[in-house]
Amino acid sequence: MLAKVDSRGRLYIPKELRKDISGEVYLVRVSEGILIVPKPEDPLRELEELGKKLPDVSIEELRREILKEAEKLAGG
Asked: Is the confidence at residue 76, as pLDDT, over 70?
C-alpha cells in the first residue's frame, strides 16, 4: 500500500490501516525500510505473553543457538 509523506514530514496513513492503530506507534528502522508498530496498551503484559511463547530451554542453550545462527549469517 502506498502512503505519502508531506513536506513537513507528516505521514498519511490510509484509512484501512488507521483502524488498526490507536494512540502511539513505534518506528523501527529495519534493513528493508521503516516498520510501524502500534504501541501495546500494556507493554509489560505484552512482553509477558511473548515470554510464554519462548521455548522451554535454558539461557545457555539459547545463547548457543544465537551464536550458531550468527556464525551461519557471517559465513562461518
From this structure: no
